[in-house]
Amino acid sequence: MAKEESFDVVSKADLQEVGNAVNQAQKELETRFDFKGSHSSIELSDDVLTVISDDEYKLASVLDIVQSKLIKRGVSLKSLDYGKIEPAAKGTVRQVVKVKQGLDQDVAKQIVKLIKDAKLKVQASIQGDQVRVSAKSRDDLQDVIQLLKQQDYPADLQFTNYR
Questions:
Q1: Is this structure's pTM higher than 0.85?
Q2: What phi and psi, each to the nearest 5 degrees, are found at residue 7?
Q3: If exposure means fewest CB atoms within 10 Å of the residue's CB, which of 4, 20, 120, 133 is most exposed?
């Protein structure tokens, strides 16, 4: 009997890299002339970024700095889930940005549907916040990976546990 081959489709941001990017962005904020005397800050706790600044314009600038640092460190911006901008203490504004870990159920269902509609000889199943794809042939799995890479999902996809 042929052995089953499989891999997992996951969406996980490297929190170590997110932390490094936040530290770099914080250092840049401290040295930039246009942020002298402003109440701008970035905090990371677990997988939630809290960005605070004087007004919405400066908040957008702070987010731009954070995003550029994340891109340089290989963290996809699709991993970020932006909350709404809300007023904070001392006339400042705050925005909470969640770093997504794992696939949403909707995205997982879309992935499984796409794989089934492709009529490849593979099985796809949702397991928690990831999708497990298995097949008898590694070539079929490669075809699925190529198929998924061509799609544009609202999540950054990685392919792990390829065996």
A1: no
A2: -150, 165
A3: 4
